[in-house]
Amino acid sequence: MTDIERAAATTLTPRPSWDYAPAPESTDIVRLQDSYGLFVGGEFVEPKSGKRFTTINPATEEPLAEIAEAGPEDVALAVEAARSAHDQVWRDLSGAERAKYLYRIARQLQERAREFAVLETMNGGKPIKESRDVDLPLAAAHFFYYAGWADKLEYAFPGRSPGPIGVAGQIIPWNFPMLMAAWKLAPALATGNTAVLKPAETTPLTALLLAEVIQEAELPPGTINIITGAGETGAALVESGVDKVAFTGSTDVGKRIRRATAGTAKRLTLELGGKAANIVFDDAPLDQAVEGVINGIFFNQGHVCCAGSRLLVQEPVFEELMDKLKARLQTLRVGDPLDKNTDVGAINSRQQLRKIEELVASGIDEGAEIYQPECVLPERGFWFRPTLFTGVSQSHRIAREEIFGPVLSIITFRTPDEAVEKANNTPYGLSAGVWTEKGSRILWMAERMRAGVVWANTFNRFDPASPFGGYKESGFGREGGMHGLEPYLQLSP
Amino acid sequence: MRLVGRTVAVDAVGLEARATSLATRSIKREAKLWALDLVIRCIDLTTLEGTDTVGKIVAMCAKAVRPDPGDPSIPSVAAVCLYPQLVPVAVRQLNGTGVKVASVAGGFPAGLGPLDTRLHEIADVVAQGADEVDIVLNRSLFLGGRYAEAFEELVAAREAAGDVYLKTILEVGELGSYDRIRQASVLAMAAGADFIKTSTGKIGTSATLPAALCMMEAARDFHRDTGRMVGIKVAGGVRASKQAIQYLVLVHETLGEDWMTPDRFRIGASSLLNDVLMQIQKERTGRYSGPDYFTAD
Amino acid sequence: MTTEARIPVRRTAKLFIGGAFPRSESGRAYEVFAKDDRSLGWAARASRKDLRDAVKAARAASVAWAGKTAYNRGQILYRVAELMEGRRAQFEAELADAGAADPRRGVSAAIDRWVWYAGWADKLAQILGGANAVAGPYFNFTVPEPTGVVGILAPLDQALLGIVSRTAPALVSGNTVVVVASEPHPLPAVSLGEVLATSDVPGGVVNILTGQVAELAPWLAGHMDVNAIDVTGAPDDLIPELETLSAENVKRVHRAPDVDPFDDAAQSPYEIAAFLEYKTVWHPMGA
User: Fold this and answer.
1) Fewer beta carbons below 10 Å: N end or C end of chain B?
2) Does A1 fall in a domain?
3) Do A314 and A346 share a domain, yes or no?
4) Above 80 in pLDDT, residue C4?
5) What confidence tens digit (pLDDT) does each residue in A87-108 have?
6) Which candidate from B14, B26, B37 shows the least CB-CB separation from A12?
7) Nearest by CB to A458, which of B9, B14, B32?
8) Closest CA to A93 of A265, A245, A218
9) What share of chain A is helix, strand, coil (3-state, %, to 5)?
């Protein structure tokens, strides 16, 4: 037998169906340390608290590293480092020089994009396709965008002598760790502030890798400090001597922070939860609407504050849309986040999984009808099948409460007015989606949505030039765009 | 006509994003070899040149049956595709091989000659032994909004073709928008096409992933509404194995496994075949190959 | 083999058109002198036909350049600054020959200015455009767009900072340009062309002609396929003729304010705005 014949005999077996072979992204590029310190004053230091906790890969439950837990003393030291970096160096640098540091960080994120993407997936559970194609490019773009504003502030706020506030304490969530770090750090530094960043408890690793980039960019020590820890560390940071607090996370914690800063002079911005309505009219470009609905709730496993978690569908097109959605759900690939063909990854933590399970159980209890496609879930790790609920009414918990998981609640409507009423009937107000071929209806609906971001014939689109933030209990303040500068500036009256 | 009356809107940005996303699927190793094998079995090996001689067709037919003379495990292609005058040659060469003879007919590629001449050409190639006929939509009528007349012409062509596979070319590069591609797809399917085909390969813009995806979505919904399965043929500009596999992914995730067969999916191509053979070599031996190792027919 | 008397390989200073470096079709060149009267060699002396070719190249490149996302243009222009930084020794030497008092400062200022303008690409719409509150159920918004092909007469002095200060603001919004370099000090402009050729800026987006400004400027001003001209580098007495010629196709004519080029006041988004058109769109709002 020749080589070719031998190879042919073993490989060209006709198959009845086409299984894409495993296509795992290699983790070789990531060099994990066993244990990490806190990044304060330009260096990694041991936590004064002496405490550490383990961070894991939620897809396998495998421990990845030991992470320092910053106690109150550590928080104070970090704030002090940020304060002195601000007073002695950063505040007096020209905008053009600040810009150049931010450009360096942006460039490095582009150079090391793969390393960051793989680590983001390992630590958080999101598909590598998303870390690689969405999270990292956007994070780099945010640094680029705000670098460009650093020496142009007088054009954004003419006549108002824009200047920094001082030290910003920034607390970010686990759903887009790198992207949230970029959303916080880039505008803060561009405007002349220094920062103390607290990454989420379950996703500290990419922030700690970012510390290496910060060192390589030769950012003046203390300009950015990164302190890991959980809720207590965050609370300590809020109570500390920072001048400004920026928080992205749950509405409950946001309210607590609002109370904690009451009566202080601290500036505050909050980016909280949502229960967005994705509204499909009967003249919508239906196949693209299906993609938008799917992306709206299953992108990042639904761990998205602006997720389209309520589908409002105009009754005439309900049946057809349901058929298409169910068929489309069957093609979603749920599994190993490091596989390049995975569409839906792991739930970020056991705690979050419990919460999703509880709410889904309530949906069934309250009489909604559940649909889940068949898919084989891995044995270890935290997983939840993409889920649809029909027969949902506005009063059901699954229609009111943020699930933060791959669960879509479907409600029908008849007229545009009814769609507006149902969409706005929530204490949240972060985002909304509108699907219709009629331009005037898009604009009419957009005008009436009580939401900070309206997507028309698309969903989950983000750009550093586009302001993002909520109405009502979804928070206040905007990130992105020229509007994203204001929360970090002192402006003369 | 009711099917065409309500044109389904297509959002261009959303469609293109979906096509791009599907094109990032990573197909490796045994899945790639399986796909490459299917690609070959779905190729309509095509030559549509003014210089096509008997000799050229004889050589091409040999290649169609045995793409790699040194490797019997490589399957034959689905069909050869050529001009009417060469049909008898191909019929003779391919007799008993299982490879089909597909002929363009009906005034290809513009399709604007007198209707009776065009219909006669279709009937004629069938009589000469063609197994399949590739015809064109009348874009002059379609883009002029004369849908009923365009439809009638396609129905007449269906009749002239009798029982053979009829592939209707939409010429997506001329239609101007995806809404129109969707509309043309439905028109052609309603008129009885067995396949809808992207392009003639004779103008600047040929098959693209989004255009093909648009057609596939139309075919999927047509099957849902009528129960009839219509095949998809992409033609023109598909030169690399990677592209061919991307089209397979589109079929797989839009239409499903029932369409993953030469009866429902074709690629009209010429130089693609050797690229597929090269990729198969690479997958098997781990070494990149070169053109010297494959026959140039 | 001794290493002392090594003959250097001298550069030929050619035109930069459509991403390539042709000599002038006229076959002419002119001698370039340093401030201390040393000969620095010869530079191509562009003809009206070269200018015609340059405009053609700029027009051909214009749709694709304007069609890139603002972010992409900003990235491409930022990279040009990276390459300029890598070439600073050459630029400094050329500025020294041109008699610059502080060549190092001149090069740093030019690079920083280029970076400054690159950062505007995705921010212009936010300060120059926006929704307009019209009295009716209409969504009305204004967007700035590049005007098209811009002809530029680079300043005589500040041989690098000058051409950068005029070129970057025109480019960042998506215009393509035909630049007539400083006549007495063309060599930094030639080097800038070489930097652009090795960057990600597509061919034809920037075209650089060296030669006699008085000969070329009227052809540029009268060209019917040029949308705007920047006459900053024109001698005062040429301006009336250039404005008259520009009337034929209602060209936009701009001259930069007379400010010390090293001053921050010399850079402004309004220098970008000089080569923008504003498009206003109406759309009804109704269910």
Assistant:
1) N
2) no
3) yes
4) no
5) 999 999 999 999 999 999 999 9
6) B37
7) B14
8) A218
9) 45, 20, 40
Inter-chain residue contact B284 with A21, CB threshold 8 Å:
no
Separation between Cα atoms, residue B294 and residue B283, nearest integer Å = 16
> Quick check: is A129 in a domain?
yes
ipTM of the complex: 0.91
- A95 and A240 together in one domain: yes
pLDDT value, residue B7: 72
A65 at B interface, C-beta within 8 A: no
Residue C3's pLDDT is: 58
8 Å CB contact between B217 and B251: no
Residue A482 structural domain: 35-272+473-490
Per residue, what are the HEC states of B34-103?
HHHHHHHHCEEEECCCCCCCHHHHHHHHHHHHCCCCCCCCCCCCCEEEECHHHHHHHHHHHCCCCCEEEE
Assess whether A109 and A158 both reside in one domain: yes
Closest CA to A205 of A184, A181, A189: A181
Name the minimum distance, in Å, from the CA of A285 to any CA of chain C: 17
Token duo for residue A274: 């949502």
Beta-carbon separation of A445 and C122 below 8 A: no
A465/C139 touch (CB, cutoff 8 Å), yes or no: no
Assess whether A313 and A403 both reside in one domain.
yes
Instruction: State the average pLDDT over residues A427-432.
Output: 97
pTM, full prediction = 0.93
Indicate the angle between helix axes B178-190 and B147-161, nearest 10 degrees. 40
Given the candidates 3.40.50.1110, 3.40.30.10, 3.40.605.10, 3.40.120.10, the CATH classification of the domain at C29-33+40-284 is 3.40.605.10
Show the tokens assigned to A196: 């103390």
Say whether B25 and A341 touch across the interface (CB within 8 A). yes
**For chain C, what is the mean pLDDT?**
96
| Catalytic position from the list A305, A402, A479, A486 | A305
Cis, bond preceding B109 (omega within 30 deg of 0) = yes
Could you read off the pLDDT of A289-341 as tens digits, one per residue? Answer: 999 999 999 999 999 999 999 999 999 999 999 999 999 999 999 999 999 99
Are chains A and B in contact at 3+ CB pairs closer than 8 Å? Answer: yes
Q: What is the mean pLDDT of residues C160-175?
A: 98
Do B and C touch, 3+ Cβ pairs within 8 Å? The answer is no
> Which residue numbers of B are catalytic?
134, 197, 233
| Assigned domain for A26 exists | no
Residues A21-57 have pLDDT tens digits of 999 999 999 999 999 999 999 999 999 999 999 999 9
**A231 vs A240: CA distance, rounded Å:** 14
B-chain CB neighbours of A299 within 8 Å are none
Any idea where the domains of chain C sit in the sequence? 29-33+40-284
Instruction: Return the pLDDT at C234.
Output: 96
pLDDT tens profile C5-62:
899 898 899 999 999 999 999 999 999 999 999 999 999 999 999 999 999 999 999 9
**Cβ within 8 Å, pair A9-B73:** yes
All residues of chain B having their beta carbon less than 8 Å from the beta carbon of residue A287 are: 8, 10, 14-15, 18, 217
Subunits next to A (3 or more Cβ pairs <8 Å) are B, C
Same domain, A199 and A341: no
Q: What is the pLDDT of residue A479?
A: 98
Among the partner-chain residues C122, C127, C285, the one whose CB lies closest to the CB of A156 is C127
For the segment B264-288, the average pLDDT, to the nearest whole number, is 93
Task: Give the CATH number, domain containing residue A265.
Answer: 3.40.605.10
On chain A, the residues whose CB falls within 8 A of the CB of C70 are: 465
Judge whether A125 and A59 are in contact, CB under 8 Å.
yes
**Structural domain count of chain A:** 2
Domains of chain B plus CATH, in order, are 2-289 (3.20.20.70)
User: Which of A130-139, B192-201, C3-12 has the lowest average pLDDT?
Assistant: C3-12
